[in-house]
Structures are given as structure tokens and as C-alpha cells.
Fold this sequence. Notes:
The protein has 186 residues and is of the alpha+beta class. It is built from 4 helices and 5 strands, in the order H-E-E-E-E-E-H-H-H. It has helices at residues 3-6, 104-118, 134-147, 162-172; strands spanning 24-28, 39-42, 48-49, 57-59, 72-77. The chain has a 5-stranded antiparallel sheet with strand order 1-5-4-2-3, with no helix packed on it. Helix 2 (104-118) crosses helix 3.
Amino acid sequence: MTVQTDIGKLIVGEGERDAIHIAVAPVVCGDSPLSAGMRIGFKEDGKVGRLPQEVIGIVDPFLTESVYPGDKFFMFLLPNTITSLRHNWTHPAFEVEAPPQPTKSASEQWMQAWAVQHMSEDYYGDDYEKKRSPEVAYAAAIEAGHTHSIGPYESAREYIDDEWWAHWEAITGERGDRENYFSCAC
């Protein structure tokens, strides 16, 4: 069981203490008052409120007072819905400026450096001090874009963001499925 992916579900078994990432966004209250923890989403006017077409989060559950129309507050997004995480997250309901598209050559260099930094430990080898070759780490990084799995490299998923996808797309010539959730396979 991983605590991060089990948030919003009843605990099966013992459970464990952990710290988790929760995506938050500053939003403006729409036409009716809201309470802490209330399920909300965007309305047609771009403000948030109850009973939207799609619930994407909750009112800051730590607030000790109600939120009134025009008030700005933090919306906590539902677990496992953001599409990248680097403390500057993306979510399908929020517009993101598209970064400039890199060249294939520049992207290959960028991805090779990224792979060496984030996916080169030899977790399953006989010698734990040994590193994977840069070529093997690079191949694993490219494969991650297809499988949405980063093997035992749990911390690497924190660095798979729009920049990572832009380089992956320039290398492969494919459109990345940025809305899929990355996981480790450990």
C-alpha cells in the first residue's frame, strides 16, 4: 500500500504514517458561500463553487471560517488527478503555457543528463554501489513515457513535468499521455 495513492479511500489493513504531496491552487469563490472541506469545481464564470460540472477539489480543509463570494482561498485538488508534480503542477482544468519545443538533438542531450541523474542507480544489481550505464538509464527514461512506470526510481516521478514531456515528445515524435499518473514499480 502506498499512502499517496490511497488517499480518499478507506484504509485496508494497518496503514502507516507518511507525508504526502497535495496539489493546491489559489481560486476565487463564486456566487454562494462555501465551507472548509466542501467538494468544488470550476463554474462557467471561471470561479469555483458547489455542484459544478466536474468536482476537482475541496475547499481548504484547514479554514476555520466560511468562504464568501469573491474571497480568494486555496483549493486542494483531488488525489491522483494532477498530471505532473514538481511543486509546480499541472491539471487538466488549469491552462498551462506551452513551453517552446526543443530540437531532437537538444532533447536527447537533456534526457540523457536527466536519466543519469534520476535513473542510474542499480537497485537490483549485485553491487549496490554500481551505476547503470548512461545508455541503459536513457532507454529506461524513454520507456517510462510509454509505460508511465519509472521502476524503483520513486523520486524520479517528481521531475516528470511539462519540460520532461516536451523533450520526450521531441525525441520520440509521439504525443505524450501527460494526463496519465506515473508510478513506481517497487
